[in-house]
Amino acid sequence: MTSATSTELDVLGALLAFDFIGFAQKSAALDPTDPQYGQAVGAAFGIAARRRFPQGATPQEISGYVAGVLGSLDAGGEDFDPAFLEGLVAAALDGGAATGGGHPDPETTIQARLVLTLRLVRELGLDTDQQRELLTETAHRLAS
């Protein structure tokens, strides 16, 4: 596992734990120019999305889900384009979370995937141990 992957998993772990100081500190260590940037968060997002939609989802279901997510976000969440988020969810369900559905700006993509992953984890009701399992599964998938 690369240091970029490890840092991203630390960032995601801090977010899921609502450790916002740790999240901010760890996020500062991310390097958007690193070729691995976004892969760990993308993989975790893909795993969570496929758990949430184990049978897949139609474009209409994805659209409805994204509308619900955007409607529940605090100020700033509306900055995400619904079509962009729908593309991320669709790519994740097709198994392309680490590479597909991205935005030309990798920072926007990772931010959107972090927001969506947090929402998915909350919807799935993952407790602390299950969140750690998600991060461990992500690390294993990236290592293979």
Q: What would the keywords be for this entry?
A:
7 helices, 144 residues, mainly alpha
Quick structural overview:
With 144 residues, the protein is mainly α. The chain has helices spanning 3-16, 20-27, 39-52, 59-72, 82-93, 106-124, 128-143.
Percent of residues in beta strands? under 5%
Radius of gyration: 14 Å
Which word captures the global form?
Answer: globular
Low-pLDDT runs of 5+ residues are none
Number of strands: 0
Number of H/I helices? 7
State the end-to-end distance: 10 Å
Oligomer: single chain
The helix-strand sequence is: HHHHHHH
- Look at the structure and give the mean pLDDT: 88
Largest sheet: none
What proportion of the residues is helical, as a percent range?
55-70%
> What structural class results from the helix and strand content?
mainly alpha
Describe this structure in words.
The chain is mostly helical and 144 residues long. It contains seven helices and no strands. The chain has helices at 3-16, 20-27, 39-52, 59-72, 82-93, 106-124, 128-143. Helix 1 (3-16) runs antiparallel to helix 2, helix 3 packs parallel to helix 6 and helix 3 packs across helix 7. The longest helix is centred in the last third of the chain and has 19 residues, at 106-124. 34% of the residues are buried. The mean pLDDT is 88.
Topology diagram in text:
Blueprint: H1 3-16, H2 20-27, H3 39-52, H4 59-72, H5 82-93, H6 106-124, H7 128-143
Helix pairs in contact: 1-2, 1-7, 3-5, 3-6, 3-7, 4-5
